[in-house]
Design brief:
By secondary structure, the chain is of the alpha+beta class. It contains five helices and nine strands.
Amino acid sequence: MGIPRRDGRQPHDLRPFTFTRRYTKQAPGSVLVSSGDTVVLCTCSVEQSVPEFLVGTGKGWLTAEYAMLPGSTNRRKPRERAGKPDGRGIEIQRLIGRALRTCIHLDRLGERTLHIDCDVLQADGGTRTASINGAYIALVDALAAIRAKDPSLPADADILSASVAAISVGLLDGQVLVDLDYPEDRDAEVDLNLVMTGAGKLIEIQAGGEEATFTRGQLDEMVRAGEGAIRQITRLQGEVLASSTR
């Protein structure tokens, strides 16, 4: 037990977490993910072609884009000009793409491209990790939609190598906190984003101090706290995907 946070949570508690599948009708996979007051729409669209470097290889591709909509923050965020995200957006969408590519056998996808789009409707910290958590479910649903038209696509157990989940962790006033909201993220001395498979293997650790340093012991403590949170998210993802309600 630690010092309760401003919203009453204990240090390692997640915010209320929900996934709403089939949120839109057009994309083969679409999920509205909410983590506290952070809300992201994740969609997965399918293109029956691949980048030039993969043509003729029989291998597919997965790519991701991320954007914060103008009304997602308390001050209007200007739209990206000429479709070009800012440096932060580029870094986040690359993270999302890397994370999702670890869980799928692209050589079994056929020459198709899966486009993951993560649009932040409301931001209160943890938008990149919420995007990854929702995008994984959108990916699974998109594969099911492909399979309905092309039964030759392997079953999930053969095309997906793992599930993927992510969480933010921070060090604030010497205390490790999980699933930071915006004020906590703003004030944290150390910020860490953790991405893992459902089997507990590491995909990516992004950690840095803000006018502060941290010890190896503190890093280990943050990773352990994040692992516990990811186990909870993975369990929730599994429950949502097992549900017949889509």
